[in-house]
Design brief:
mainly alpha
Length: 203
């Protein structure tokens, strides 16, 4: 369920720290300020991700946030793989994801990790990443809830990996999915009572 560990501890620790710091960069806040949208933490849900940026009505800012949040996970994986190895690549993806959820620059209060999850998965296993993106898009299109799409995409990813024989990434995907679900606990409650805002709704 994990890749063979071939890299020494010191190198892996360095990769984890660098990836975490990259993942901690709050691109949602950066885009909101660049576009003059104010403090994103005081808008809508208060989340720093692309969905909340979209609630401001600024689609370019939301699109840039989506790409950059996904990119930091993907870049962490690709650079670690090229410079160190597959074990470091998976660790880098996990560390970048933790950085987005618990960023050191924001007092460890970050986003919910959906874009970073998808970007990480695209870099770890591109076909699996495409499948997760497709599931997210189909669920979002059908129900208009970003949170529900994230829950479904994250929960099905390790299952798809196992069924398709990609066992070396299953543990990583299980850990990422658990964190996605934990970070969406408030959304789950709102979905259950019918109070969850739909995609694109200004707040």
């Amino acid at each position: 369920m994990i890749p063979q560990i071939t890299t020494d501890f010191g190198a892996l620790a360095g990769v984890a720290v660098a990836a975490y710091l990259l993942g901690s960069v709050p691109f949602g806040l950066v885009m909101a300020r660049l576009f003059g949208l104010g403090d994103l933490r005081k808008i809508g849900s208060g989340n720093i991700g692309a969905t909340n940026v979209l609630r401001t009505g600024n689609k370019p800012a939301a699109a840039l946030t989506l790409v950059l949040d996904a990119g930091k996970g993907g870049i962490a994986v690709l650079v670690a793989r090229a410079m160190v190895g597959e074990d470091a690549a998976q660790l880098a993806g996990f560390a970048a994801f933790l950085g987005h959820l618990f960023p050191v620059y924001l007092g460890f209060r970050g986003g919910k990790g959906v874009a970073t999850f998808l970007g990480t998965l695209l870099a770890v296993q591109f076909p699996l990443g495409l499948a997760a993106c497709a599931i997210w898009l189909l669920t979002a299109f059908a129900f208009r809830f970003s949170s529900l799409a994230a829950l479904v995409a994250s929960a099905t990813s390790p299952v798809i990996a196992a069924v398709t024989g990609n066992m070396q990434v299953v543990l990583l995907l299980i850990l990422l999915a658990l964190l996605v679900w934990i970070r969406h606990h408030a959304n789950i409650r709102r979905l259950m009572v019918g109070d969850e805002p739909k995609i694109g709704k200004k707040n």
